[in-house]
Design brief:
The structure is a homodimer of 434-residue chains.
Chain A: E1 4-10, H1 14-25, H2 27-34, E2 37-44, E3 61-62, H3 66-69, E4 76-79, H4 85-96, E5 100-103, H5 106-122, E6 127-128, H6 139-146, E7 152-158, H7 161-173, H8 177-187, H9 195-198, H10 201-215, E8 225-226, H11 234-242, E9 245-256, E10 259-270, E11 282-289, E12 293-300, H12 304-324, E13 347-357, H13 362-372, E14 377-385, E15 390-397, E16 400-401, H14 402-414, E17 418-427
Parallel strand pairs in A: 1-2, 1-4, 2-3, 4-5, 5-6, 8-10, 10-17
Antiparallel strand pairs in A: 7-9, 7-11, 9-10, 11-12, 13-15, 13-16, 13-17, 14-15
Helix pairs in contact in A: 1-12, 4-5, 5-10, 7-8
């Protein structure tokens, strides 16, 4: 066993600075866990002369990746630089040089996870990525180890803090999407280009990772159907509340008889669902297993120290494995061949809001379209819209399949009496056996 | 590596039956994780001729513990019989015979955990006990591995399903403790002798285990101060709601500057606290770490299959360790010497309900007692009690220490104008820096 373990850090941004602080502040605990001293040997940065928020010995900084990737003193490489191209090449080179890797990079793991895990395994190295999903929540460990005895059939994740903050604020204050987004940007909760967050892509990456692990199937990013929150209105949130729901941007991953569906979209959850009270920038993943039933894992989804906690916990596992000489043995290849559900097999209840001409027969035309497709209503609201010859109609359907629902949706747009389909959302977290 | 792994089961009650079912139903997944077939070789029962709810080959049943403890074919002993004396001897014998042990026994681990872990380590064996706390929630793993990089400063646990069911039902329906307890017994949620649950002892055992792991200190059951829910009234629950709180039986474990406090008592939580919406028989553990901040782990705290999930996940870890040849290496002795807070160091806000004589000067006597001890009020309600010359007074204090509060409490009883101190609860889950 080494007397000390040396870390090479790729990146010194938000997460990297957190990693430096935790390693400095928790030396005693680290030594207790790992059995040897842990310290940072080198840190790759773009500009070594830049001012830093974290106090750091300048000798540690380098602008040359080879100082880490080919450094014979370094045992573990921690990738917290983000992005895909550079990071991927660096990680592969580190693994080929027999260095273990810990990464917080969800883009990379969602797109190249299987390939990178294979390279790690071929080189007898660990590759861990707990921080890539839901920041400080140890969800990957819980799926892979804590619930390893069970067959997971459903995961619903609030895995993007920015959108959860926006929807919480819109719902509590009745504000518009645009106003709250601006506020979130001012507070640093949303980036100046918020597309990846608000359009659901960030959540989709995390769901691809969770789906792969939870269902033991190689889920690709392209398998996740994605819709963001930029069209959600304050009216939708108000109706959702009136009907006893809360709106959240959720990733939904379900398995039925060996076939899976994975998607990200704004959805309604019953207000007493465990996820319904997950607010602001918090993340949570609801996991349903055949044997265990309902569980939920809640915590901070981002931030310097929370995410760094996950990174350093992974480092501890790597270092324990080094002590025992068992690195590179923990990642299992998927057990099942990927089988995606067809649209006929994707079942859900739906919320729909329409603007309809306020005249005789209008309502009959709509109801006959639904009933002709064997879709029945669970709830219905209709009220006149002031100063217009229009009525607002809100429909909550019973369970139907995605194909039928989309067919009805497109037929509604063709009906003369329907002025517009204003919005439409899945309703999740309800039992269909009720 | 063995071609098959043989399990010996001590006990075939609720949890044991669940273990049998999961092993039968998840053979393919188990083989994938473990790399070899897993089967049950022998099951110790009190009466082999008894009718069982689970279908079982009668050849597997034995009434002789030696058929398991000294059976050379058996690799892993799973103790799900409960109780302490017999179970302790069996586990020690199994470990000395170099058999790994998985147990769901919270009584045993709370009382003899340190001793048993030492025996396991001396014999190069694993001893895991995830199922002993919060049933199907992988909380032990999350503390020991997922948050291993962090310094945990607070754990608040709803770790007893029976009492959570009773308090939820009392709060929702305004029913009395006695009525709801009877109902819980009829439904099988409470035992015919409910003492260990309702008086907080079961929760105390689990908090001793969580405290030991989370704070890396040898916490004994005697270190946990315990108060149950049998004196909670519907009036208390109603006032709690009015003031924006929810009442829960919680275990509280806090660490400040190296000193800890551990207790179990009915307490008020702000209604927007993550634990406040944990209802019915569900369990949840809220964990605060210096770096990660707020996290929560939610799920079923009891039940055959949920608890068995935790047992079988532990078995999988044992069997993976067998494949790698690294058993008996994972349990770390506590890093810190145990230091308990004094009553002066235990800080909290309190809720108190009094019956006071409805006459001039009564209120002044009470307020001067509090202010004389430097305790100020955050909230105050006073209203007359019908048909009596009494007023009901409800006080929410600002932060104070336990010693001062208990001093005030006993002085109040001596005041002439105070007819009775009806109830008194800690208020938890609030920030004291507000």
């Amino acid at each position: 066993m080494n007397e000390k373990i040396s870390i090479g850090l790729l990146g010194l941004g938000t997460v990297g600075s957190g990693v430096v602080r935790i390693i400095e502040n928790h030396q005693q605990e680290l030594k207790h866990h790992v059995g040897s001293a842990v310290y940072i040997e080198k840190i790759l940065v773009k500009d070594a002369s830049k001012q830093r928020t974290v106090e750091i010995d300048e000798q540690l900084l380098t602008e040359n990746p080879e100082d880490i990737l080919s450094n014979p003193n370094i045992d573990v490489v921690v990738e917290v630089m983000g992005g895909t191209n550079g990071a991927k090449d660096y990680i592969i080179q580190a693994l080929k040089n027999k260095k273990h890797v810990v990464t917080a990079n969800k883009d990379l793991m969602a797109m190249y996870g299987a390939e990178l895990l294979t390279v790690a395994s071929e080189n007898g190295c660990d590759l861990f990525y707990e921080a890539s999903v839901a920041g400080g929540i140890p969800i990957i460990r819980s799926l892979v180890e804590g619930l390893s005895s069970d067959r997971i059939t459903k995961m619903i994740g609030i895995v993007n803090g920015t959108t959860n903050y926006i929807l919480t604020k819109m719902s509590n204050e009745g504000s518009s999407y645009e106003d709250v987004l601006q506020e979130a940007q001012d507070l640093g909760y949303a980036e100046s280009d918020p597309t990846a967050d608000v359009e659901g892509l960030d959540a989709a990456r995390k769901m691809a990772i969770l789906g792969t692990l939870g269902f033991s199937m190689n889920i690709a990013l392209e398998d996740v159907s994605v819709q963001g929150i930029s069209n959600v209105t304050e009216e939708d949130l108000e109706y959702a509340k009136q009907l006893g729901y809360r709106m959240k941007l959720v990733g939904i991953a379900k398995r039925d008889e060996g076939k899976v569906e994975i998607s990200v979209q704004p959805s309604l959850l019953p207000k007493n669902h465990p996820l319904a009270s997950v607010n602001d920038v918090f993340n949570a993943v609801y996991v349903y297993g055949e044997a265990v039933g309902e569980t939920m894992f809640y915590g901070p989804g981002a931030g310097s120290l929370p995410t760094a906690t996950a990174v350093v916990s992974d480092m501890i596992t790597v270092m324990k494995n080094m002590r025992l000489g068992v690195n590179g043995r923990s990642a299992l290849p998927p057990l099942y061949e990927k089988k995606l559900k067809t649209d006929e097999e994707i079942l859900s209840k739906y919320f729909m809001r329409l603007h309809v001409e306020d005249k005789a027969g209008a309502f009959a035309a709509i109801t006959s379209l639904f009933s002709g497709n064997n879709v029945s209503f669970e709830k219905l609201l209709q009220m006149p819209i002031k100063n217009k010859d229009l009525a607002e109609v809100v429909i909550v359907t019973h369970k139907t399949n995605k194909r039928t629902y989309e067919h009805i949706h497109s037929c509604l747009r063709d009906l003369d009496v329907v002025k517009d389909v204003m919005s439409s959302y899945r309703i999740e977290g309800v039992s269909y056996d009720e």
